Amino acid sequence: MAAPRVCVPGERLFSTADCEAGPGTYVHHGYIYSCLAGYMHKRKQDGKELPIIEVIRQKEDAVPRKDSIVTAKVTSVSGRMCKCAITCVERTTLREPFRGLIRKEDVRATEKDRVEMYKCFRPGDIVLARVVSFLDKKVQVSLLTGFLDAACQLSLGDANCYLLSTAENELGVVLALSEAGAQMVPVSWCDMQCPKTGSKESRKVAKVQLQQE
Amino acid sequence: MPGDSRRVPGPQDSRSPHWYGKQPPQHQETGTRQDGRADHDLRPVYLHAGVVSQATGSAYIELGQTKVIAAVYGPREIARREEFTMKGRLCCELKFATFSCRRRRQHMQDNQEKDVSLIVLQALEPAVCLVSGGFLLITKQGMCVADLVQIYLSLIRSVLVYGHVLLDRFPKSQVDVYITVLQDDGSALAAAITCAAAGLADAGVMMYDVVTGCSVRQCGDRQLLDPSGSEESSQEGEGVEDHGMVTVGLLPSLNQVSALVLDGHLPQTTAVQLVSLVSALVLDGHLQQQTAVQAVKTCIGGCQGIYPILKDCLVKSTRRKVPAVDPTLIRTSIDGQNGRT
To answer: Where would I find the Exosome complex component CSL4 C-terminal domain in this sequence (chain A) (predicted)?
Structure first.
Protein backbone atom coordinates (compact mmCIF):
# COMPACT_ATOMS: atom_id res chain seq x y z
CA MET A 1 0.00 0.00 0.00
CA ALA A 2 1.30 3.41 -0.91
CA ALA A 3 2.02 5.83 1.90
CA PRO A 4 -1.08 7.90 2.66
CA ARG A 5 -1.16 11.50 1.56
CA VAL A 6 0.13 14.07 4.02
CA CYS A 7 -1.91 17.24 4.31
CA VAL A 8 -1.30 20.54 6.04
CA PRO A 9 -3.90 22.77 7.74
CA GLY A 10 -6.07 24.58 5.22
CA GLU A 11 -5.47 22.15 2.40
CA ARG A 12 -8.56 21.55 0.28
CA LEU A 13 -9.25 17.84 0.09
CA PHE A 14 -12.60 16.97 -1.50
CA SER A 15 -15.99 18.37 -2.31
CA THR A 16 -18.76 17.59 0.14
CA ALA A 17 -20.63 16.04 -2.76
CA ASP A 18 -18.09 13.23 -2.92
CA CYS A 19 -17.20 12.65 0.71
CA GLU A 20 -18.19 13.31 4.28
CA ALA A 21 -16.04 15.24 6.72
CA GLY A 22 -14.58 13.22 9.58
CA PRO A 23 -12.24 14.02 12.47
CA GLY A 24 -9.39 16.42 11.64
CA THR A 25 -11.31 18.20 8.90
CA TYR A 26 -13.78 21.03 8.51
CA VAL A 27 -16.22 22.12 5.86
CA HIS A 28 -16.11 25.54 4.26
CA HIS A 29 -18.12 26.65 1.22
CA GLY A 30 -18.88 23.11 0.17
CA TYR A 31 -15.38 21.77 0.39
CA ILE A 32 -13.64 19.63 2.98
CA TYR A 33 -10.43 21.15 4.30
CA SER A 34 -7.83 19.62 6.55
CA CYS A 35 -7.26 21.28 9.91
CA LEU A 36 -4.28 19.17 10.99
CA ALA A 37 -0.89 18.37 9.61
CA GLY A 38 -1.28 14.63 9.30
CA TYR A 39 -2.19 11.67 7.12
CA MET A 40 -5.39 11.64 5.12
CA HIS A 41 -7.51 8.49 5.15
CA LYS A 42 -10.65 7.70 3.23
CA ARG A 43 -12.84 5.04 4.70
CA LYS A 44 -16.13 3.46 3.74
CA GLN A 45 -18.99 3.84 6.15
CA ASP A 46 -21.39 1.02 6.85
CA GLY A 47 -24.79 1.69 5.39
CA LYS A 48 -23.88 5.07 3.94
CA GLU A 49 -23.10 5.95 0.41
CA LEU A 50 -20.36 8.51 0.87
CA PRO A 51 -16.94 7.61 2.22
CA ILE A 52 -15.67 9.55 5.22
CA ILE A 53 -12.50 11.62 5.06
CA GLU A 54 -10.34 11.99 8.13
CA VAL A 55 -6.96 13.46 8.86
CA ILE A 56 -5.03 11.60 11.51
CA ARG A 57 -2.02 12.64 13.47
CA GLN A 58 -0.95 9.91 15.78
CA LYS A 59 -0.13 11.91 18.85
CA GLU A 60 -3.50 13.13 19.96
CA ASP A 61 -3.06 15.75 22.66
CA ALA A 62 -5.45 14.89 25.43
CA VAL A 63 -6.85 17.11 28.13
CA PRO A 64 -9.09 15.86 30.97
CA ARG A 65 -12.77 15.89 30.05
CA LYS A 66 -15.90 15.13 31.95
CA ASP A 67 -16.26 11.43 32.78
CA SER A 68 -12.80 10.49 31.57
CA ILE A 69 -10.73 8.18 33.75
CA VAL A 70 -7.47 9.77 34.80
CA THR A 71 -4.36 8.57 36.59
CA ALA A 72 -3.15 10.97 39.25
CA LYS A 73 -0.43 11.16 41.85
CA VAL A 74 -1.40 12.42 45.28
CA THR A 75 0.57 15.50 46.24
CA SER A 76 -1.04 16.56 49.50
CA VAL A 77 -3.81 15.38 51.81
CA SER A 78 -5.86 17.47 54.19
CA GLY A 79 -8.94 16.74 56.29
CA ARG A 80 -11.37 17.94 53.62
CA MET A 81 -9.69 17.16 50.37
CA CYS A 82 -6.77 15.61 48.62
CA LYS A 83 -4.76 17.37 45.92
CA CYS A 84 -3.21 15.48 43.10
CA ALA A 85 -1.37 15.89 39.84
CA ILE A 86 -3.10 14.32 36.85
CA THR A 87 -0.51 12.56 34.73
CA CYS A 88 -2.58 10.42 32.36
CA VAL A 89 -5.95 10.76 30.68
CA GLU A 90 -7.39 7.40 29.65
CA ARG A 91 -4.37 5.85 27.94
CA THR A 92 -2.60 9.03 26.92
CA THR A 93 0.24 10.35 29.02
CA LEU A 94 0.16 14.11 29.43
CA ARG A 95 3.26 16.13 28.73
CA GLU A 96 2.70 18.28 31.77
CA PRO A 97 0.59 17.42 34.83
CA PHE A 98 -2.77 19.07 35.44
CA ARG A 99 -3.99 19.93 38.94
CA GLY A 100 -6.75 17.72 40.33
CA LEU A 101 -8.77 17.67 43.53
CA ILE A 102 -10.63 14.85 45.33
CA ARG A 103 -13.12 16.19 47.84
CA LYS A 104 -14.04 14.24 50.97
CA GLU A 105 -17.56 13.49 49.71
CA ASP A 106 -16.27 12.11 46.42
CA VAL A 107 -14.00 9.45 47.89
CA ARG A 108 -16.54 6.63 48.08
CA ALA A 109 -20.18 6.07 47.22
CA THR A 110 -21.43 4.87 50.61
CA GLU A 111 -21.06 6.30 54.12
CA LYS A 112 -19.80 9.54 52.68
CA ASP A 113 -19.88 11.33 56.00
CA ARG A 114 -17.62 8.83 57.73
CA VAL A 115 -14.76 9.22 55.30
CA GLU A 116 -11.43 10.11 56.85
CA MET A 117 -9.11 11.47 54.21
CA TYR A 118 -5.93 10.38 55.99
CA LYS A 119 -7.18 6.79 55.92
CA CYS A 120 -7.88 6.92 52.20
CA PHE A 121 -4.89 8.58 50.56
CA ARG A 122 -1.30 9.41 51.35
CA PRO A 123 1.02 11.66 49.38
CA GLY A 124 2.79 9.70 46.67
CA ASP A 125 -0.07 7.25 45.99
CA ILE A 126 -1.08 6.60 42.44
CA VAL A 127 -4.84 6.95 42.08
CA LEU A 128 -7.34 6.10 39.37
CA ALA A 129 -10.20 8.59 39.35
CA ARG A 130 -13.00 9.93 37.22
CA VAL A 131 -13.43 13.58 36.29
CA VAL A 132 -16.80 14.62 37.71
CA SER A 133 -19.22 17.43 37.18
CA PHE A 134 -19.49 20.00 39.86
CA LEU A 135 -21.39 23.23 40.23
CA ASP A 136 -19.01 25.73 41.70
CA LYS A 137 -19.73 29.28 42.73
CA LYS A 138 -19.25 30.73 39.29
CA VAL A 139 -21.73 28.29 37.83
CA GLN A 140 -24.32 29.08 40.48
CA VAL A 141 -23.97 32.73 39.58
CA SER A 142 -24.38 32.00 35.92
CA LEU A 143 -27.41 29.81 36.71
CA LEU A 144 -28.99 32.73 38.47
CA THR A 145 -28.25 35.05 35.63
CA GLY A 146 -29.73 32.61 33.20
CA PHE A 147 -26.68 31.43 31.33
CA LEU A 148 -27.76 27.85 31.46
CA ASP A 149 -25.54 26.82 28.59
CA ALA A 150 -22.52 28.13 30.40
CA ALA A 151 -23.58 26.24 33.50
CA CYS A 152 -23.85 23.00 31.62
CA GLN A 153 -20.46 23.51 30.11
CA LEU A 154 -18.75 24.46 33.34
CA SER A 155 -18.65 20.96 34.64
CA LEU A 156 -14.96 20.43 35.07
CA GLY A 157 -14.49 22.07 38.43
CA ASP A 158 -13.37 25.55 39.23
CA ALA A 159 -10.75 27.55 37.42
CA ASN A 160 -7.82 25.99 39.19
CA CYS A 161 -8.56 22.29 39.50
CA TYR A 162 -10.30 19.39 37.92
CA LEU A 163 -12.63 17.70 40.39
CA LEU A 164 -12.05 13.98 40.64
CA SER A 165 -14.09 11.20 42.18
CA THR A 166 -13.11 7.72 43.33
CA ALA A 167 -16.66 6.68 44.29
CA GLU A 168 -16.61 3.44 42.29
CA ASN A 169 -15.23 0.01 43.07
CA GLU A 170 -12.78 0.20 40.20
CA LEU A 171 -11.42 3.58 41.27
CA GLY A 172 -9.05 4.47 44.09
CA VAL A 173 -5.45 3.79 45.02
CA VAL A 174 -3.70 1.38 42.68
CA LEU A 175 -0.08 1.82 43.72
CA ALA A 176 1.19 2.84 47.13
CA LEU A 177 4.42 2.54 49.07
CA SER A 178 4.45 1.56 52.73
CA GLU A 179 6.34 3.40 55.42
CA ALA A 180 9.13 0.89 54.94
CA GLY A 181 9.27 1.89 51.28
CA ALA A 182 7.98 -1.33 49.77
CA GLN A 183 5.15 -1.51 47.28
CA MET A 184 2.05 -2.63 49.12
CA VAL A 185 -0.36 -5.39 48.20
CA PRO A 186 -4.10 -4.83 48.49
CA VAL A 187 -5.79 -7.13 51.00
CA SER A 188 -9.30 -5.64 51.11
CA TRP A 189 -11.12 -2.63 49.64
CA CYS A 190 -9.86 -0.48 52.49
CA ASP A 191 -6.53 -2.05 53.45
CA MET A 192 -3.14 -2.62 51.91
CA GLN A 193 -0.33 -4.69 53.37
CA CYS A 194 3.40 -4.15 53.23
CA PRO A 195 5.20 -7.34 52.05
CA LYS A 196 8.33 -6.33 53.94
CA THR A 197 7.05 -5.66 57.45
CA GLY A 198 3.59 -7.16 57.25
CA SER A 199 1.98 -4.00 58.60
CA LYS A 200 -1.39 -2.91 57.29
CA GLU A 201 -2.19 0.60 56.12
CA SER A 202 -5.65 1.81 55.22
CA ARG A 203 -6.36 3.19 51.76
CA LYS A 204 -9.34 3.49 49.43
CA VAL A 205 -8.19 0.61 47.28
CA ALA A 206 -9.22 0.24 43.63
CA LYS A 207 -10.41 -3.11 42.40
CA VAL A 208 -8.32 -3.15 39.27
CA GLN A 209 -9.99 -4.91 36.38
CA LEU A 210 -8.28 -6.07 33.26
CA GLN A 211 -9.71 -4.31 30.26
CA GLN A 212 -11.18 -6.52 27.61
CA GLU A 213 -9.24 -6.05 24.45
CA MET B 1 15.28 50.80 33.79
CA PRO B 2 16.77 48.79 36.66
CA GLY B 3 19.50 46.43 35.60
CA ASP B 4 19.27 42.68 35.93
CA SER B 5 21.27 41.69 39.00
CA ARG B 6 21.55 38.07 37.95
CA ARG B 7 23.40 38.69 34.73
CA VAL B 8 26.61 40.38 33.77
CA PRO B 9 25.24 43.06 31.50
CA GLY B 10 26.89 44.18 28.35
CA PRO B 11 27.58 47.88 28.04
CA GLN B 12 24.31 49.73 27.66
CA ASP B 13 25.23 51.40 24.42
CA SER B 14 27.46 48.78 22.82
CA ARG B 15 27.22 48.49 19.07
CA SER B 16 28.17 45.92 16.56
CA PRO B 17 31.40 46.67 14.67
CA HIS B 18 29.34 46.72 11.48
CA TRP B 19 27.95 50.01 12.69
CA TYR B 20 31.25 51.73 12.08
CA GLY B 21 31.96 50.06 8.77
CA LYS B 22 31.20 51.63 5.47
CA GLN B 23 27.65 51.08 4.29
CA PRO B 24 27.59 49.73 0.75
CA PRO B 25 25.86 52.17 -1.58
CA GLN B 26 22.20 51.52 -2.26
CA HIS B 27 20.92 50.59 -5.67
CA GLN B 28 24.15 50.12 -7.54
CA GLU B 29 22.31 49.51 -10.75
CA THR B 30 19.04 51.08 -11.55
CA GLY B 31 16.15 48.73 -10.95
CA THR B 32 17.92 46.40 -8.54
CA ARG B 33 18.29 46.55 -4.81
CA GLN B 34 21.40 46.42 -2.68
CA ASP B 35 21.44 42.62 -2.67
CA GLY B 36 20.72 42.39 -6.37
CA ARG B 37 17.02 41.60 -6.08
CA ALA B 38 14.27 43.14 -8.11
CA ASP B 39 11.72 45.18 -6.17
CA HIS B 40 9.18 42.37 -5.94
CA ASP B 41 11.56 39.51 -5.16
CA LEU B 42 11.69 37.68 -1.87
CA ARG B 43 14.97 36.86 -0.20
CA PRO B 44 15.93 33.18 -0.08
CA VAL B 45 13.74 31.44 2.52
CA TYR B 46 14.81 28.53 4.68
CA LEU B 47 12.13 26.97 6.86
CA HIS B 48 12.46 23.91 9.05
CA ALA B 49 9.89 22.52 11.48
CA GLY B 50 10.59 20.37 14.53
CA VAL B 51 13.84 21.94 15.75
CA VAL B 52 13.25 22.18 19.52
CA SER B 53 13.14 18.66 20.94
CA GLN B 54 11.37 19.42 24.23
CA ALA B 55 8.63 21.55 22.69
CA THR B 56 5.39 20.09 21.33
CA GLY B 57 6.10 21.79 18.04
CA SER B 58 8.66 24.25 16.75
CA ALA B 59 9.98 25.93 13.63
CA TYR B 60 12.96 27.93 12.46
CA ILE B 61 12.92 30.40 9.60
CA GLU B 62 15.54 32.40 7.76
CA LEU B 63 14.63 35.21 5.43
CA GLY B 64 18.04 36.20 4.15
CA GLN B 65 19.86 37.21 7.33
CA THR B 66 16.72 37.45 9.47
CA LYS B 67 16.55 34.41 11.72
CA VAL B 68 13.58 33.54 13.91
CA ILE B 69 12.84 30.46 16.01
CA ALA B 70 9.45 29.59 17.50
CA ALA B 71 8.54 26.91 20.05
CA VAL B 72 4.99 25.81 20.89
CA TYR B 73 4.07 24.18 24.20
CA GLY B 74 0.74 22.75 25.18
CA PRO B 75 -2.10 22.19 25.55
CA ARG B 76 -1.10 22.90 29.12
CA GLU B 77 -2.90 24.03 32.22
CA ILE B 78 -3.98 27.65 32.44
CA ALA B 79 -1.94 29.50 35.04
CA ARG B 80 -3.63 30.19 38.37
CA ARG B 81 -3.79 33.94 37.93
CA GLU B 82 -5.70 33.78 34.66
CA GLU B 83 -9.45 34.01 34.67
CA PHE B 84 -11.62 30.99 34.10
CA THR B 85 -12.52 30.01 30.57
CA MET B 86 -13.98 26.92 29.03
CA LYS B 87 -12.35 27.78 25.76
CA GLY B 88 -8.81 27.16 24.79
CA ARG B 89 -6.38 30.04 24.98
CA LEU B 90 -3.51 30.98 22.78
CA CYS B 91 -0.60 32.90 24.30
CA CYS B 92 2.23 34.40 22.39
CA GLU B 93 5.51 35.84 23.60
CA LEU B 94 8.08 37.35 21.30
CA LYS B 95 11.60 38.30 22.32
CA PHE B 96 14.39 39.86 20.35
CA ALA B 97 17.62 38.20 21.44
CA THR B 98 20.03 40.67 23.05
CA PHE B 99 22.43 40.25 20.14
CA SER B 100 19.80 40.29 17.39
CA CYS B 101 19.90 43.93 16.39
CA ARG B 102 22.52 46.52 15.65
CA ARG B 103 21.90 47.98 19.06
CA ARG B 104 22.10 45.62 22.02
CA ARG B 105 18.68 44.71 23.43
CA GLN B 106 17.78 44.16 27.06
CA HIS B 107 16.75 40.89 28.64
CA MET B 108 13.42 42.19 29.76
CA GLN B 109 10.58 42.34 27.27
CA ASP B 110 10.25 45.95 26.15
CA ASN B 111 7.26 47.77 24.70
CA GLN B 112 8.10 47.07 21.09
CA GLU B 113 8.34 43.37 21.82
CA LYS B 114 4.99 43.43 23.61
CA ASP B 115 3.41 45.16 20.62
CA VAL B 116 4.85 42.68 18.18
CA SER B 117 3.77 39.74 20.38
CA LEU B 118 0.22 41.05 20.26
CA ILE B 119 0.29 41.45 16.51
CA VAL B 120 1.57 37.91 16.01
CA LEU B 121 -1.02 36.56 18.45
CA GLN B 122 -3.85 38.28 16.64
CA ALA B 123 -2.53 37.17 13.29
CA LEU B 124 -2.63 33.55 14.47
CA GLU B 125 -5.95 33.60 16.34
CA PRO B 126 -8.27 33.50 13.32
CA ALA B 127 -6.42 30.45 12.06
CA VAL B 128 -6.40 28.40 15.24
CA CYS B 129 -9.47 26.36 16.03
CA LEU B 130 -9.24 26.65 19.77
CA VAL B 131 -9.88 30.35 20.04
CA SER B 132 -12.45 32.69 18.62
CA GLY B 133 -10.44 34.92 16.40
CA GLY B 134 -10.82 38.54 15.60
CA PHE B 135 -9.03 40.71 13.15
CA LEU B 136 -6.37 43.26 13.84
CA LEU B 137 -5.58 46.43 12.05
CA ILE B 138 -2.96 48.62 13.58
CA THR B 139 -2.35 52.05 12.23
CA LYS B 140 0.27 54.36 13.55
CA GLN B 141 0.97 58.04 13.23
CA GLY B 142 -2.53 59.37 13.30
CA MET B 143 -4.57 57.52 10.76
CA CYS B 144 -8.24 57.49 11.63
CA VAL B 145 -9.93 54.50 10.08
CA ALA B 146 -11.83 53.18 13.09
CA ASP B 147 -15.23 53.15 11.41
CA LEU B 148 -14.03 51.27 8.43
CA VAL B 149 -12.32 48.80 10.69
CA GLN B 150 -15.62 48.14 12.40
CA ILE B 151 -17.27 47.41 9.08
CA TYR B 152 -14.46 45.16 8.11
CA LEU B 153 -14.56 43.36 11.46
CA SER B 154 -18.17 42.40 10.98
CA LEU B 155 -17.32 41.12 7.56
CA ILE B 156 -14.48 38.90 8.72
CA ARG B 157 -16.51 37.55 11.62
CA SER B 158 -19.29 36.47 9.33
CA VAL B 159 -16.85 34.39 7.36
CA LEU B 160 -15.30 32.78 10.41
CA VAL B 161 -18.50 31.89 12.26
CA TYR B 162 -17.99 28.19 11.80
CA GLY B 163 -14.87 28.57 13.92
CA HIS B 164 -16.78 28.12 17.13
CA VAL B 165 -17.56 24.48 16.49
CA LEU B 166 -14.24 23.26 17.76
CA LEU B 167 -13.86 25.63 20.67
CA ASP B 168 -14.48 22.92 23.23
CA ARG B 169 -11.60 20.78 22.10
CA PHE B 170 -9.23 22.06 24.74
CA PRO B 171 -11.31 23.14 27.74
CA LYS B 172 -9.42 25.03 30.41
CA SER B 173 -6.11 24.72 28.65
CA GLN B 174 -3.79 26.98 26.76
CA VAL B 175 -1.22 26.76 24.04
CA ASP B 176 1.92 28.87 24.46
CA VAL B 177 3.99 30.16 21.57
CA TYR B 178 7.46 31.48 22.35
CA ILE B 179 9.21 33.28 19.52
CA THR B 180 12.81 34.42 19.61
CA VAL B 181 14.27 36.67 16.95
CA LEU B 182 17.87 35.57 16.71
CA GLN B 183 18.87 38.12 14.12
CA ASP B 184 16.85 41.02 12.83
CA ASP B 185 17.72 42.03 9.31
CA GLY B 186 14.34 43.37 8.30
CA SER B 187 10.85 41.81 8.12
CA ALA B 188 11.20 40.25 11.58
CA LEU B 189 7.46 40.51 12.21
CA ALA B 190 6.58 38.78 8.96
CA ALA B 191 9.10 36.04 9.68
CA ALA B 192 7.72 35.63 13.21
CA ILE B 193 4.17 35.17 11.91
CA THR B 194 5.18 32.51 9.40
CA CYS B 195 7.43 30.75 11.89
CA ALA B 196 4.83 30.68 14.67
CA ALA B 197 2.22 29.27 12.31
CA ALA B 198 4.61 26.54 11.20
CA GLY B 199 5.32 25.76 14.86
CA LEU B 200 1.61 25.50 15.67
CA ALA B 201 0.97 23.18 12.75
CA ASP B 202 3.98 21.11 13.77
CA ALA B 203 2.53 20.85 17.29
CA GLY B 204 -0.61 19.28 15.85
CA VAL B 205 -2.84 22.17 16.87
CA MET B 206 -6.03 22.23 14.83
CA MET B 207 -6.03 25.19 12.47
CA TYR B 208 -8.28 26.37 9.69
CA ASP B 209 -5.26 27.40 7.73
CA VAL B 210 -1.62 28.22 8.16
CA VAL B 211 -0.61 31.87 8.29
CA THR B 212 2.13 33.44 6.23
CA GLY B 213 3.47 36.92 6.76
CA CYS B 214 5.11 39.34 4.41
CA SER B 215 6.21 42.98 4.52
CA VAL B 216 6.54 45.73 1.97
CA ARG B 217 8.58 48.90 2.35
CA GLN B 218 7.08 51.78 0.47
CA CYS B 219 9.67 54.37 -0.64
CA GLY B 220 7.92 56.94 -2.77
CA ASP B 221 6.67 54.99 -5.76
CA ARG B 222 9.02 52.07 -5.15
CA GLN B 223 7.68 49.03 -3.34
CA LEU B 224 10.36 46.84 -1.85
CA LEU B 225 9.00 43.40 -1.01
CA ASP B 226 10.56 41.64 2.00
CA PRO B 227 12.83 44.58 2.94
CA SER B 228 16.21 43.97 4.50
CA GLY B 229 17.40 45.80 7.61
CA SER B 230 19.12 48.59 5.74
CA GLU B 231 16.09 49.12 3.53
CA GLU B 232 13.82 49.24 6.58
CA SER B 233 15.91 51.93 8.24
CA SER B 234 16.85 53.89 5.14
CA GLN B 235 15.75 57.49 4.85
CA GLU B 236 15.00 57.17 1.18
CA GLY B 237 11.62 58.45 0.19
CA GLU B 238 11.11 60.38 3.39
CA GLY B 239 9.63 63.77 2.71
CA VAL B 240 7.71 62.44 -0.26
CA GLU B 241 4.10 61.72 0.58
CA ASP B 242 4.20 57.91 0.56
CA HIS B 243 6.69 56.06 2.67
CA GLY B 244 6.09 53.42 5.28
CA MET B 245 5.94 49.75 6.11
CA VAL B 246 3.03 47.43 5.42
CA THR B 247 2.91 43.95 6.93
CA VAL B 248 0.19 41.45 6.09
CA GLY B 249 -0.64 38.12 7.69
CA LEU B 250 -2.53 35.94 5.24
CA LEU B 251 -4.44 32.68 5.47
CA PRO B 252 -3.27 31.58 2.02
CA SER B 253 -5.67 28.77 1.33
CA LEU B 254 -8.77 30.66 2.43
CA ASN B 255 -7.32 33.88 0.99
CA GLN B 256 -8.17 35.93 4.05
CA VAL B 257 -6.11 38.60 5.72
CA SER B 258 -5.69 38.00 9.43
CA ALA B 259 -3.44 40.94 10.30
CA LEU B 260 -2.59 44.17 8.64
CA VAL B 261 -0.03 46.55 10.09
CA LEU B 262 0.58 49.95 8.57
CA ASP B 263 3.40 52.10 9.78
CA GLY B 264 4.46 55.39 8.27
CA HIS B 265 3.07 58.31 6.38
CA LEU B 266 0.50 56.72 4.19
CA PRO B 267 -2.13 59.37 3.64
CA GLN B 268 -5.54 58.78 5.07
CA THR B 269 -7.29 58.47 1.75
CA THR B 270 -4.91 55.68 0.89
CA ALA B 271 -5.73 53.89 4.11
CA VAL B 272 -9.42 54.18 3.38
CA GLN B 273 -8.86 52.72 -0.04
CA LEU B 274 -6.91 49.95 1.55
CA VAL B 275 -9.56 48.84 3.97
CA SER B 276 -12.09 48.76 1.21
CA LEU B 277 -9.67 46.67 -0.77
CA VAL B 278 -9.28 44.10 1.95
CA SER B 279 -12.99 43.62 2.35
CA ALA B 280 -13.32 43.52 -1.39
CA LEU B 281 -10.70 40.84 -1.50
CA VAL B 282 -13.05 38.53 0.26
CA LEU B 283 -15.89 39.47 -2.03
CA ASP B 284 -14.70 40.56 -5.41
CA GLY B 285 -11.41 42.37 -5.77
CA HIS B 286 -12.07 45.13 -8.27
CA LEU B 287 -10.50 48.41 -7.16
CA GLN B 288 -8.38 51.35 -8.06
CA GLN B 289 -4.64 51.05 -8.03
CA GLN B 290 -3.57 53.23 -5.18
CA THR B 291 -0.21 53.06 -3.51
CA ALA B 292 -1.08 51.41 -0.22
CA VAL B 293 -3.63 49.22 -1.88
CA GLN B 294 -0.94 48.13 -4.23
CA ALA B 295 1.42 47.61 -1.28
CA VAL B 296 -1.03 45.27 0.38
CA LYS B 297 -1.46 43.41 -2.87
CA THR B 298 2.28 43.07 -3.16
CA CYS B 299 2.36 41.76 0.42
CA ILE B 300 -0.32 39.21 -0.34
CA GLY B 301 1.67 38.13 -3.38
CA GLY B 302 4.71 37.69 -1.15
CA CYS B 303 2.67 35.67 1.37
CA GLN B 304 1.46 33.40 -1.42
CA GLY B 305 5.09 33.00 -2.46
CA ILE B 306 6.07 31.71 0.98
CA TYR B 307 3.10 29.33 1.19
CA PRO B 308 4.56 26.48 -0.93
CA ILE B 309 7.73 26.54 1.17
CA LEU B 310 5.72 26.36 4.37
CA LYS B 311 3.60 23.55 2.99
CA ASP B 312 6.59 21.57 1.87
CA CYS B 313 8.29 22.03 5.23
CA LEU B 314 5.21 20.82 7.12
CA VAL B 315 4.79 17.77 4.92
CA LYS B 316 8.42 16.84 5.54
CA SER B 317 8.22 17.38 9.29
CA THR B 318 4.99 15.37 9.52
CA ARG B 319 6.54 12.46 7.68
CA ARG B 320 9.54 12.63 9.99
CA LYS B 321 7.67 13.08 13.24
CA VAL B 322 4.52 11.01 12.84
CA PRO B 323 4.89 7.49 11.52
CA ALA B 324 2.19 6.47 9.09
CA VAL B 325 -0.12 4.07 10.89
CA ASP B 326 -3.08 1.93 10.15
CA PRO B 327 -6.07 4.17 10.83
CA THR B 328 -8.13 1.36 12.32
CA LEU B 329 -5.69 1.08 15.21
CA ILE B 330 -5.90 4.69 16.32
CA ARG B 331 -9.57 5.18 15.66
CA THR B 332 -10.61 3.39 18.83
CA SER B 333 -8.43 5.62 20.99
CA ILE B 334 -9.66 8.79 19.31
CA ASP B 335 -13.29 7.76 19.66
CA GLY B 336 -12.72 6.92 23.29
CA GLN B 337 -11.28 10.32 24.05
CA ASN B 338 -13.79 12.45 22.29
CA GLY B 339 -16.79 10.43 23.23
CA ARG B 340 -18.09 10.72 19.68
CA THR B 341 -17.50 9.09 16.39
So the answer is: 93-133
